[in-house]
Amino acid sequence: SGNNFEIIIIDDGSPDGTQEIAEQLEKIYGSDKILLRPRPRKLGLGTAYIHGMKHATGNFIVIMDADLSHHPKFIPEFIRKQKEGNFDIVSGTRYKGNGGVYGWDLKRKLISRGANFITQVLLRPGASDLTGSFRLYRKEVLQKLMEKCVSKGYVFQMEMIVRARQLGYTIGEVPITFVDRVYGESKLGGNEIVSFLKGLLTLFATT
């Protein structure tokens, strides 16, 4: 790609063999390119971001899921978009241009669309996809946002964008196709939906 990069893998003791595969990749590509930074148990997405940032040496950080729901082929487009507009954040969007979702049932699609619609109406964040996590950040912007964000779970990604707008950071968007994981199940259930609504109302009251 011509870009200098490192891949930091944060594995929270997952039982699916992620760490073993990462160790094999480290041997093939070298520990300067593949940095495996495991943690003994699941400690949450926000703390995983902080953990990863501590080890990142570049000026920009791309955050993505490691199960190929987020395809690496979009990363060059994120980089192009950032350079084009000198954006602080470039966010992958499933809801603009030729973006889309594959592998979700109707219920999951309705929940995601509904969450985005309600958030657009209440918060007017200026971005079309608030619950996705495939994004490029300037490192110092990500650090600042992590200091400001208090949400957990489903609301966390949304708060990152809302706080970014509040702090005057610029956001570009790249259409992506999201492919749901083949194995495992989504953790999105009734409790997560209630937490989302509570978090949304908190953000509405504080932004």
Automatic annotation (TrEMBL):
Enzyme class of the recorded protein, top EC level: transferase
Protein localization: Endoplasmic reticulum
Cross-referenced Pfam families: Glycos_transf_2
Catalytic activity: a di-trans,poly-cis-dolichyl phosphate + GDP-alpha-D-mannose = a di-trans,poly-cis-dolichyl beta-D-mannosyl phosphate + GDP
Pathway linked to the protein: Protein modification; protein glycosylation
Biological process annotations from GO: dolichol-linked oligosaccharide biosynthetic process; GPI anchor biosynthetic process; protein O-linked glycosylation via mannose
Annotated ranges, domain Glycosyltransferase 2-like: 3-145
Cofactor: Mn(2+); Mg(2+); Ca(2+)
Coiled-coil segments: none
Domain of life of the source: Eukaryota
GO molecular function (one): dolichyl-phosphate beta-D-mannosyltransferase activity
The enzyme's E.C. designation: 2.4.1.83
GO cellular component: endoplasmic reticulum membrane
Quaternary state and interactors: Component of the dolichol-phosphate mannose (DPM) synthase complex.
The family this protein is said to belong to: Belongs to the glycosyltransferase 2 family.
Role this protein plays: Transfers mannose from GDP-mannose to dolichol monophosphate to form dolichol phosphate mannose (Dol-P-Man) which is the mannosyl donor in pathways leading to N-glycosylation, glycosyl phosphatidylinositol membrane anchoring, and O-mannosylation of proteins; catalytic subunit of the dolichol-phosphate mannose (DPM) synthase complex.
Protein name: Dolichol-phosphate mannosyltransferase subunit 1
Lineage: Eukaryota, Metazoa, Chordata, Craniata, Vertebrata
